[in-house]
């Protein structure tokens, strides 16, 4: 009997393979696609197991066609075609400008009938806003790679950036027009200003990072401490932290309300978070993937976590094939979810022998499971290992949903309740925020908090192969005992 789950698995894996190998293939004739579809239909009707092979061929064709179409779309009418030594371009700021390393990164829309975006790197002041129309005059250049190990051009291309301009002359043409995005941006700014009014710079910087993903307001010294101890993911929006946050919200609400309400509130929370952070393309991709993954167990797919993860990944890859190569957030989200799906239960079994509360056991198992699958990737790509990351995450992550909830409620009440009462009501949230900062302070001062380490991609593949074997052996053992 033909298994639908096996068809889905083969199709997902073959599409991913097609995207990876597609640029090396010649254009595949449409007739081969038609023949594959006909053979699949015939095999399905006759219950012939050759259908798995035909599905594999169709998946390769789909993946290859998608990546080649994506590349061809940008080979014509690309924004790079307008490059000149000196150029004047008028465009709208398409995302919230980023402040980093005393520089301001601004993305503007391309001229009419062109694809791609221009990224401007300029001084941190004056600050520009999402939705403003500006005119820039200066030199433009195509991105180039600095090393053979990292493709800077691919990293930018996944976010639709194909041109750069360093410190051009910028003239503000007009402010944002009132629309949905404008009001969301105003709400975001209002939250940031309310945080800064109520709290000290270090606490307000942390809270705005948690609520709207803005790390620009956090003092650099505090941010560096968070980076040192492996806690920056709680204030930097990515697929990884959306996955962790969603899991924590579900755990926080589990048993308190009906399952369907737990799912709805979790989805609403991560959608709201995504909108408030500016809803950049990479974050929207992470939102879609996370939403599919957290919804799967509620919709009857609990026995096929791999299928839910692969389906989510394939959807993201088909939307933008470059994420498969260059989006670290996508990779970490994928790996963290695999870890939660396959290593949480084994770790739970290990900690059953210890007389500690179930809540702590669950927290340890979830954070450790996610780190088992993400740590090798982080070591390979960032060449360092934060020794205290498992401990700091264990001490901090369980408190994040409650901290965010208290902070958000205070922001809502601040405009309608006298300041003296708000100061009192904000004390529980303030204590939690101070606790998180203190954890970063303490562990960043300990010796050997980070260790330089280099793992080649060959060793990375071996590590993940070993993890796959361990997961397979454990779950095979569990199935035997169940039967």
Structural features, described:
This protein is an alpha+beta fold and 483 residues long. It folds into three domains: 4-75, no CATH class; 81-174, Beta Barrel (OB fold (Dihydrolipoamide Acetyltransferase, E2P)); 193-482, no CATH class. It has helices at residues 4-21, 30-45, 51-75, 152-157, 180-198, 201-212, 220-228, 239-253, 259-276, 281-295, 305-319, 323-326, 328-342, 344-351, 358-382, 389-396, 400-413, 419-425, 427-444, 457-482; strands spanning 87-92, 98-100, 103-108, 117-122, 133-138, 161-166, 169-174, 384-386, 450-452. Helix 14 crosses helix 15. The longest helix is centred in the C-terminal third of the chain and has 26 residues, at 457-482. The mean pLDDT is 83.
Main sheet summary = 4 strands, mixed
Number of helices: 20
Look at the helices and sheets and give the structural class: alpha+beta
* Element order: H for helix, E for strand: HHHEEEEEHEEHHHHHHHHHHHEHHHHEH
The helix content is: 55-70%
Radius of gyration: 24 Å
Low-confidence segments, given as residue ranges, are none
Order of strands, widest sheet:
2-3-4-6
Shape label: globular
Proportion of residues in β-strands: 5-15%
Q: Give the distance, in angstroms, between the N- and C-terminal Cα atoms.
A: 21 Å
Structural domain tally = 3
Would you count the extended β strands for me?
Answer: 9
Mean pLDDT reading:
83
């Amino acid at each position: 009997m033909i298994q639908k789950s096996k068809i889905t698995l083969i199709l997902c894996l073959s599409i991913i393979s097609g995207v990876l190998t597609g640029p090396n293939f010649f254009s595949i004739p449409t007739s081969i696609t038609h023949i594959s579809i006909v053979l699949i239909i015939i095999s399905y009707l006759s219950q012939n197991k050759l259908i798995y092979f035909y599905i594999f061929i169709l998946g390769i064709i789909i993946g290859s066609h998608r990546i080649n179409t994506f590349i061809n779309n940008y080979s014509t009418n690309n924004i790079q075609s307008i490059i000149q030594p000196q150029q004047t371009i008028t465009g709208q700021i398409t995302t919230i400008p980023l402040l980093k390393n005393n520089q301001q990164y601004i993305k503007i829309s391309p001229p009419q009938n062109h694809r791609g975006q221009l990224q401007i790197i300029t001084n941190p002041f004056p600050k520009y806003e999402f939705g403003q129309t500006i005119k820039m005059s200066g030199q433009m250049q195509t991105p180039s790679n600095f090393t053979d190990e990292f493709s800077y051009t691919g990293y930018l291309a996944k976010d639709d950036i194909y041109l750069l301009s360093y410190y051009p002359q910028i003239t503000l043409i007009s402010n944002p027009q009132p629309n949905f995005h404008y009001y969301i941006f105003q709400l975001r700014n209002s939250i940031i200003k309310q945080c800064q009014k109520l709290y000290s710079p270090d606490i307000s910087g942390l809270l705005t990072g948690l609520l709207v993903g803005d790390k620009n307001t956090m003092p650099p010294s505090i941010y560096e401490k968070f980076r040192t101890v492996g806690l920056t993911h709680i204030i930097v929006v990515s697929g990884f932290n959306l996955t962790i946050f969603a899991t924590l919200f579900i755990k926080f609400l589990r048993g308190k309300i009906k399952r369907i309400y737990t799912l709805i509130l979790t989805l609403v929370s991560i959608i709201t978070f995504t909108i408030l952070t500016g809803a950049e393309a990479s974050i929207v991709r992470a939102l879609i993937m996370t939403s599919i993954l957290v919804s799967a167990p509620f919709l009857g797919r609990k026995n096929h976590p791999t299928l839910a993860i692969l389906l989510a990944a394939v959807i993201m890859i088909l939307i933008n094939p470059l994420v498969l190569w260059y989006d670290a957030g996508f990779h970490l989200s994928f790996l963290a979810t695999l870890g939660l799906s396959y290593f949480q239960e084994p770790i739970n079994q290990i900690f059953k022998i210890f007389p500690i509360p179930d809540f702590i056991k669950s927290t340890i198992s979830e954070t450790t499971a996610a780190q088992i699958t993400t740590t090798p990737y982080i070591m390979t790509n960032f060449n360092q290992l934060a020794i205290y990351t498992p401990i700091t995450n264990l001490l901090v992550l369980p408190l994040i949903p409650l901290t965010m909830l208290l902070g958000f409620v205070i922001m809502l009440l601040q405009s309608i309740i006298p300041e003296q009462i708000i100061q009192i009501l904000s004390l529980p949230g303030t204590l939690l925020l101070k606790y998180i900062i203190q954890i970063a302070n303490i562990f960043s001062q300990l010796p050997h908090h980070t260790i330089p380490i280099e793992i080649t991609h060959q060793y990375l593949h071996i590590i993940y192969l070993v993890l796959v074997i361990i997961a397979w052996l454990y779950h095979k053992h569990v199935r035997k005992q169940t039967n």
